[in-house]
Every structure is written in structure tokens, then in C-alpha cells.
Amino acid sequence: MKDRLELVLDILARKGYRSVIELSTDLKVSDMTVRRYLDKLEEKKLIKRTHGGAFMGQEMVEVDYRMRETVRRKEKEAIARLAWSLVQPGESIFIDAGSTTALMAVMMGDTKRITVVTCSTTVMQSLELSNIETIVLGGKLHPISHSLIGPIAEETVRQFHFAKAFLGAAGINPKEGFTQSNMEEVPVKKIVAANSKEVIILADSSKFDRDVLVLFLHPTQVHTLITDSGIRPECQAALEEKGIRVLVAPMDDT
Q1: Per mean pLDDT, which range of 49-63, 123-137, 168-182 is the poorest?
Q2: What is the pLDDT of residues 220-239, one digit of tens each?
Q3: Separation CA 52–CA 250 (nearest Å)
Q4: Residue 36 near residue 30 (C-beta atoms within 8 A)
Q5: Do 137 and 179 fall within a single domain?
Q6: Is pTM, for the whole model, over 0.85?
Q7: Under a CB-based contact definition with an 8 Å cutoff, are residues 232 and 248 in contact?
């Protein structure tokens, strides 16, 4: 059932709202089974039920990291693997908080002699036993995203310049840009982007056309997007027209 619950979350994240009948078709199960799935997700406060369906609206986007890290895991691992391949020896990079960026830290070896600056306590934990030089921003801990935020984090990150910044996004609108559900995380992202030679967004294809609260980067401020094969051709074309290099991460079949 766990896989099916994750699939329901994924569908609602992409569609916003889905009726019981539509979910029944999506999952190829009975209406009664769908209602049972929705009951369990509502108990966890991950969705909101309506008469005949369910939605993951704006107020539901910022779900706990422990749940997000299990959704679309294979796609996120493929994105993280490709992101790590872009890092060159000797570079100083920034790794953002988020479930996909955290997986990038898991993929990293210590042979490139790089320096990592991060606002993510999850990234910090992944790198603390490695030989990678790691600098962690100070600041207020945001427990849902496991990120460090606020004036201390913002002042600290202003002191750095990066060859590459690997940032997460809660939503992607090909016309308007990249969005975030938590306003408190936005200032650090903006400063990092301004201080980086190359801004790289890591986001699986469920993030497209998701209605999320705060726009933090316009398309002109992003150099590269790494996503999975679920990206629609029209979305990829729209981003490339804006000058963004779109890389589709190959899945590991092993």
C-alpha cells in the first residue's frame, strides 16, 4: 500500500485536484480502494478531502521532508547522479535543502577536492564522514525542510561565491519561473543565485505547473534544469526558448 499512497501523492502534487473516479482510473483500482488510500493520507494531514475527491492545494505543498524523500525516489536519484557528474575538480559549490539535492550529497565521492557550502542539515549529515570540505550556514532551523534560514544564514552566504549552485524548487512555471512554498527559504536562494556563475535547478517532472506560493527565480536567472523523462515536450521547449539548458536524467535500470 505504501507505493500506492506515494503514487496518489505524486498525482495530486501534479494535478492539484483529482476525483475519486479519476484516481480509480489512474491507479486501476476500485473507488472503495481509492477512498481508503485518501483516508490514510488525510489522517497524515498530507491532503484535503472534498466531496468526491481530494486535493493538495497551496497550503498542502510543504509536506514533511520524511515523506517527500520517498516520493519519486528513482527519478530523484537519477537527477542527483547527473547533477554530481557536472561538478568539476576544485570547484566551490552550493547545495540547497530539499529531497533531491540531499540525494546529490549521497552520490558524491571525495576525489574531486571540492568545497561544499550548504543550508541543509541533511546534506551536512551525508557529508560529515567524508573528506569533502563542508561549510554549513548558521541561522534558524526550519524543521520541515531541514534547512537553515533567517538573517544569520543570509549574512553568512553573502560572503561566498560559487562556481555552481544546485537549488531545489517546489514548482516550475515555464513562463514565469521557479517557485517555493516556504517564504523564509527564498532570501538564501536568491543570494546564492546572485553569487553563482551557474545556477542549476534539480526538480523532478511533477513540479511543473504546480501552483506554489513564492516566485524566487525568473527563467533568465537559471542556466540549467535537471529533471526526469516525465517532462512534457512543450515544457522543455518553453524553457529552452528562455535560454535554459534542460538535461533529462537517464534512469538506472539496475
Answers
A1: 49-63
A2: 999 999 999 999 999 999 99
A3: 37
A4: no
A5: yes
A6: no
A7: no
For the segment 59-114, what is each residue's pLDDT rounded down to a tens digit? 444 555 555 555 678 899 999 999 999 999 999 999 999 989 999 999 998 889 99
- Angle, to 10 degrees, between the axis of helix 99-107 and the axis of helix 73-85? 50
Q: Are residues 179 and 76 in the same domain?
A: yes
* CB of 89 closer than 8 Å to CB of 160: no
List b or e across 155-175, with b for residues whose CB sees 16 or more CB atoms inside 10 angstroms: ebbeebebbbbbbbbbbbbbe
Q: What is the CATH number of the domain that holds 44?
A: 1.10.10.10
The number of folded domains in the chain is 2
CA dist 196 and 50 (Å) reads 44
- Confirm if 120 and 97 have CB atoms less than 8 A apart: yes
Question: Which amino acid is present at 159?
Answer: Q
Do 207 and 233 share a domain, yes or no? Answer: yes
Let me know whether 77 and 188 are in one domain.
yes
Integer Cα distance of 162 and 182 in angstroms: 24
Q: Which residue has the cell 564522514?
A: 129
Three-state DSSP at 188 gives helix
